[in-house]
Design brief:
The protein has one helix and seven strands. By secondary structure, the protein is of the alpha+beta class. The chain has a domain of 92 residues: Immunoglobulin-like (Sandwich).
Length: 143
Amino acid sequence: MRRVWSGALLACVITLASTGMLTGCTSEDPVPTTATPTDAPTGFPAIPEGRGVIASTIMTKVTSEPGATVVAEGTVTMPEGEAGAIAISVSWVDRATSAVYARGVTVVDGLAAGEQSEWTISAELPESATEVTTVLGAVIVEE
């Protein structure tokens, strides 16, 4: 019986010690949940609701020069068994904070199942944009 208690006591000591060590590593300052560049434009185009079809969407070209009109181009193919419109969005974001610097949205309408179409999106990227990366999105627009 003595061994059981010593094992349990050892487990309690390890648990308390590790909890104390973790507590010492936590920050008292709250972590920000969002970050926005100070001069980021507001009023980005809304991304429509719909079922994602990113696997059917390819971005073939993108520019990301701060202080300029940026352009993204690509193709989209309507999945088999579907028809209608696909909304494509490209967001130019800060790689470190995920803050959106610019966004463009276009809708490719009237596609039949298996049909492919080219798309182009442009937006104004602020001069202060740094660490820019792009995020591509595509959804079949719900009617």
